[in-house]
């Protein structure tokens, strides 16, 4: 692996989600696990383990009110003392009875006002944590044709987004996340990348699109969306996970490592891996049955492996074949990189970064898992109610 590829990989930064460390599940069952954090501070402690062993997970995203505290500045100091930073602030307008018919798109102006107040509160929190990104995902939508007026809901959404955009500080951004369906099943008010892109264009340069890899119709060519948004400088972030069917929120790369490679190739090819591109690489996952910290370590390594392979694509050979219309040689150059086992090279890179070559084994040997399982017996575990 060339020194330039290694140098690029050293700059990789992946943001883990606080909610991946808490209990979660499906509508059928939330399985609790021993050692799950009881507090936001303990979630940060666990996130710091992922960074300690991978070296490339220096930030953790928060979700409000799941991570509500009295003193966000104190929480930021706790994070910094652990060698990590607080990243994106995620708003939550999907867990309040008032939002049954929508949050910022709700027919009731009082509910819209309440939802907007929460979004603005999240910007206040960003001012205290020093976070750059406000991540907005709206569960808003309808279940039956005629239930509400789609155009009017877009006007309500646009009005709210503009109010939030005007409140953002000069170094702050909003990341608008789209989703094809769930919890609404007829319309979602931000169902796809085109709708998110159009709203972000209307808002301004500090409004960017967040691509959650689990939020598309089966068979969607996500790497095309990535290539397009990078070209127009509107790709703000990823919510990485993988799925076999719907928004399964499984470990990124677990279901389709080739798709993750194709996505990371377009990121590298489109300049999205460069620091000044400002793309946030976040994980958005739920470890329903597997241990949480090892699950995050595996996820970070999967993104790192896909990135290493993407950086190994022989661009010269690929472009030459593409330009000469040599279909098979072009595909071969692409597949050669994908079929390269980068694990030995990454082990070497980790050693050069002063880390153990095998993060998962190193974590297992650290005894941290046993310590938290023994030490976190009392109190209410964080996450979804079991
Ligand atoms: C919605 C979503 C969103 C988060 C939530 C935890 O499906 O992807 O990004 O707020 O998961
Ligand atoms: Mn998401």
TrEMBL record:
Domain Xylose isomerase-like TIM barrel: 51-245
Coiled-coil ranges per UniProt: none
Alphabetical list of Pfam families matching this protein: AP_endonuc_2
Manganese as UniProt keyword: yes
Entry-linked InterPro entries: L-rhamnose_isomerase, Rhamnose_iso-rel, Xyl_isomerase-like_sf, Xyl_isomerase-like_TIM-brl
Enzyme Commission (EC) number: 5.3.1.14
Top-level enzyme category: isomerase
Record keyword Isomerase present: yes
Name this protein carries in UniProt: L-rhamnose isomerase
Species this chain originates from: Pendulispora brunnea
């Amino acid at each position: 692996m060339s020194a330039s590829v290694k140098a690029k990989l050293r700059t990789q930064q992946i943001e883990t989600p606080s909610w991946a460390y808490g209990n979660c599940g499906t509508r059928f069952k939330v399985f609790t696990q021993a050692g799950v954090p009881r507090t936001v501070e303990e979630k940060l402690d666990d996130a710091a383990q992922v960074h300690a062993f991978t070296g490339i997970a220096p930030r953790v995203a928060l979700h409000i009110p799941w991570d509500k505290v009295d003193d966000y500045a104190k929480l930021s100091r706790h994070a910094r003392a652990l060698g990590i930073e607080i990243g994106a602030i995620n708003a939550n307008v999907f867990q309040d009875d008032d939002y049954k018919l929508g949050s910022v798109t709700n027919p009731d102006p009082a509910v819209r006002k309440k939802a907007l107040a929460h979004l603005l509160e999240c910007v206040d929190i960003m001012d205290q944590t020093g976070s750059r990104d406000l991540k907005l995902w709206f569960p808003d939508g309808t279940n039956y044709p005629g239930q509400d007026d789609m155009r009017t809901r877009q006007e309500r959404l646009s009005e709210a987004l503009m109010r939030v955009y005007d409140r953002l500080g000069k170094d702050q951004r909003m990341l608008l996340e789209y989703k094809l369906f769930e919890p609404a099943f007829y319309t979602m008010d931000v169902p796809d990348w085109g709708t998110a892109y159009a709203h972000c264009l209307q808002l301004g340069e500090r409004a960017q699109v967040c691509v959650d890899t689990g939020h598309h119709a089966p068979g969607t060519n996500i790497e095309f969306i990535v290539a397009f948004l990078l070209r127009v400088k509107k790709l703000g972030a990823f919510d990485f996970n993988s799925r076999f069917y719907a928004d399964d929120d499984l470990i990124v790369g677990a279901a389709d490592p080739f798709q993750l490679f194709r996505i990371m190739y377009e990121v590298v090819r489109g300049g999205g891996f460069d620091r000044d591109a400002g793309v946030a690489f976040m994980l958005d996952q739920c470890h329903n049955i597997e241990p949480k910290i090892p699950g995050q370590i595996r996820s970070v390594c999967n993104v790192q492996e896909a990135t290493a392979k993407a950086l190994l694509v022989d661009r010269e050979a690929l472009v030459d074949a593409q330009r000469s219309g040599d279909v098979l040689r072009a595909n071969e150059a692409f597949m050669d990189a994908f079929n390269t086992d980068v694990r030995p090279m990454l082990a070497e890179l980790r050693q050069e970064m002063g880390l153990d070559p095998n993060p998962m084994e190193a974590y297992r040997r650290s005894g941290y898992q046993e310590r938290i399982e023994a030490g976190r017996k009392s109190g209410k575990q964080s996450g979804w109610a079991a």
